[in-house]
Design brief:
Number of strands: 12
Helix content: 40-55%
Radius of gyration: 26 Å
Oligomer: single chain
Strand order of the largest sheet: 9-10-11-12
Shape: elongated
Largest sheet: 4 strands, mixed
Order of helices and strands: HEHHEEHEHEEHEEHHHHHEEEHEHH
Length: 330
């Protein structure tokens, strides 16, 4: 086997296309002989891997790109390649998402999901192996197509946490997109990530938890405490119950956690019950959250009743398997 093909196999993780082999000087009969001798195995028509065992995810990614060439990884496959294909939280059975030019006709074999993109050259990092759409664009595609807003939040948080990109860079990529689902929501979450605030979470609590389920109207204001003035996200004043909305999208260290515990302890000293909620409670299972808050409020003297919203159990479509109402008796 000549030097050029050996170099290709090293660069492409053991995967090579027939056109590359023929350009390097081999003949079709040479390729058939390598397959017959089980030195190579067919991954897709015209694409081979240099062993007969199961291909790795990275080899499947290379095979998808080479089969569709000129093409690049996109969507979740581009994100996975950027994160590192060996992550334990990834499943190897996922399809390979491949981007080709918008005007190109392309029939994808099993295991490859094609996406047609306008201005493909400008969106792809061709120097990477395998070539892939820029991570900001890929992250936006995955977030926009996520099954829920909470899943979209997790995609954005993970991308920033990995330090492969920043919230500002994703925000700039979003501004350049002419059409994308969840634009306003994604923009709001990205602003929160960049600024360290939780306004999206506060609005979500109001619109998904408090209002549609008939919880009493809460106040949001500065309160006195044993440590001085403290801003409380949500207070149900007549019932001396606080709801703290934790908008951090990933861990910020022991010091921040300690401050949160101090705030909860202050609330207990002042005779208030403090409940801490995050993105999952608000966006992933708001009905379940509202039901539990209703129980706590009733225990503290609220005489109202939880209202079932259209997404609640028996009300037209559950958001999560946890969206079942607990008994409303203490």
């Amino acid at each position: 086997m000549n030097v050029i093909i050996q170099r290709l196999l090293r660069h492409q993780c053991g995967v090579v296309a027939r056109r590359q082999v023929l350009a390097a000087g081999l003949l079709d009969r040479d390729v058939r002989r390598l397959v017959r001798r089980r030195e190579w195995a067919i991954v897709h028509d015209g694409v081979y891997v240099d062993h007969t065992g199961p291909p790795t995810w990275l080899q499947l990614a290379w095979a998808g790109v080479l089969f569709a060439w000129p093409a690049a990884l996109c969507h979740d496959s581009a994100v996975r390649a950027a994160d590192g294909p060996g992550r334990r939280d990834r499943l190897d059975g996922d399809p390979i998402h491949v981007a080709v030019d918008r005007d190109r006709a392309f029939a994808a074999p099993s295991g490859i999901v094609p996406h047609r993109l306008a201005d493909l050259d400008a969106k792809v990092q061709w120097n990477l192996g395998p070539p892939r759409v820029r991570v900001e664009q890929a992250v936006l595609d995955v977030a926009a197509e996520s099954r829920s807003e909470f899943a979209a939040i997790a995609v954005l948080a993970k991308a920033v946490q990995s330090r492969r990109t920043t919230a500002d860079r994703i925000q700039k990529a979003l501004a350049g997109r002419t059409r994308i689902a969840r634009r306003e929501f994604l923009s709001g979450v990205l602003r929160d990530v960049a600024e360290g605030t939780c306004s999206v979470l506060e609005h979500g609590y109001l619109d998904l938890v408090e209002r549609p389920h008939g919880l009493p109207r809460a106040s949001r204001q500065l309160l006195g405490s044993s440590r001085g003035p403290v801003y409380r996200d949500v207070e149900y004043q007549p019932f001396r119950m606080l709801v703290e909305l934790d908008g951090r999208l990933f861990h910020t260290g022991a010091e921040a956690h300690s401050r949160d515990l101090d705030r909860d302890l202050d609330a207990a000293v002042d005779g208030r019950e403090s409940v801490r909620l995050g993105w999952g409670q608000v966006f992933d299972h708001p009905c379940w959250t509202a039901a539990h808050l209703g129980i706590l409020l009733r225990q503290r003297g609220w005489e109202g009743q939880i209202v079932r919203c259209p997404a609640c159990p028996d009300g037209g479509g559950l958001r999560s398997s946890r969206d079942s109402f607990p008994p409303l008796s203490a």
